[in-house]
Amino acid sequence: MKVVLAQPRGFCAGVERAIDIVEKALETYGPPVYVRHEIVHNRHVVDSLRAKGAVFVEELDEVPEGKIAIFSAHGVSKTVETDAESRHLQVIDATCPLVSKVHVEGRRYAAQGREVILIGHAGHPEVEGTMGQVPGGIHLISTAGDVDRLQVKDPNKLAYVTQTTLSVDDTRDVIEALKRRFPAIVGPDTKDICYATQNRQRAVRQLSEQVDMILVIGAPNSSNSNRLREIAEELGVRSHLIENAGQLDPQWLKGVKSVGITAGASAPDVLVQEVVSKLRDLQQISLSVMEGIAENVKFRLPPQLEANGRVAAK
Ligand code: 2E4
Ligand code: SF4
Asked: Which of 126, 212, 289, 299 has the fewest beta carbons closer than 10 A?
């Protein structure tokens, strides 16, 4: 059986930075450090940081006064930031800079007196964070159909922003529907969808042309990973989202001559390697990596962790 690995796949710069932040905070301040929400949506990552002394909580009231609190890569609302201040927590912000950029953009549109529309999935932590970063409220929509239901004050004073991990194609449809109904609306086109999401989607599209089945390594609550599986499926390739090799069902391989493997931005490559090993245990395989761009994006750490030696957290 032919096995082809997508390129690029797996960790993006925002995830590497977020994991680095937790590791450096543990080294600098010593355990425990508290992390609000899974630092990224991956059980393997969370478990290994927990083993080093990170304590994961869903809300800040679970963090004792004055302790270190790290915000996850998905970002937080203003309310969470002010709660942290009032509890005198020492905050280290692991929000991906590309999520923060969307927050800044949303606030800029609001400051221009525009009503802001967010294209994203309800209940996702990034969406909750972005909604809570734009003063005056924000309309949330997720499909082109939602556009018809929007009720706005002034159709000439509108802007939109998007979640960073959406399907590029679906988002283009939603933006077109917005522009049809509100020709004066302004926004970033699909540029809020980050480079890593766009590159992994392009790669899985290419991979879909080469294989009979695709395995996406990623967590069920990982937005970007779910989009990869959907894209492959939409292109007619049977596709499964699995967290690890244990979830690979040997029955899926019946009649399959070639398997493509990709991984969401939060899935470490060791999980990909374990899936490859399991395939190798089950069958004789020929392994290759598809041609694709090499990413060289790297984000700086927050100032508290970048400086030499121990510096007080914010
Ligand atoms: C922050 C923003 O957003 P998603 O559910 O895809 O997050 P995940 O943790 O799976 O991936 C990293 C990430 C974090 C992506 N965008
Ligand atoms: Fe940042 Fe994009 Fe990675 Fe999300 S997927 S953490 S927005 S680089």
From this structure: 289
Task: Give the pLDDT confidence score for residue 307 in this predicted structure.
Answer: 66
Q: Indicate whether residue 224 lines ligand 1 (CB < 6 A).
A: yes
Question: For residue 309, what pLDDT is reported?
Answer: 44
- 90: Cβ below 6 Å to ligand 1? no
pLDDT of residue 306: 84
The pLDDT value recorded for residue 101 is: 98
37 within ligand 1 shell (Cβ under 6 A): no
Task: For domain 13-97+299-306, give the CATH number.
Answer: 3.40.50.11270
The reply to whether omega before 268 is within 30° of 0 (cis) is no
Task: Reply yes or no on whether 291 is catalytic.
Answer: no
Instruction: Please list the ranges in the chain whose pLDDT falls under 70.
Output: 307-314
Q: Which ligand is nearest to the CA of 197?
A: 2
Which ligand ends up closest to the CA of 40?
Answer: 1
Q: Confirm or reject: Cβ of 193 under 6 Å from ligand 2.
A: no
Domain ranges of the chain: 2-11+195-289, 13-97+299-306, 98-192
For residue 8, whether the previous peptide bond is cis, meaning omega lies within 30 degrees of 0, is yes
Provide CATH code, domain 2-11+195-289: 3.40.1010.20
Mean pLDDT score of the chain, rounded to an integer? 97
Whether the model clears a pTM of 0.70, i.e. scores above it, the answer is yes
Measured in Å, residue 97 CA sits from the centre of ligand 1 at: 12
Pocket-testing residue among 17, 121, 199, 222, ligand 1, by greatest number of atoms within 8 A of Cβ: 222
Which tens digits make up the pLDDT trace of 102-141?
999 999 999 999 999 999 999 999 999 999 999 999 999 9
Q: Are both 2-11+195-289 and 98-192 of the same fold?
A: yes
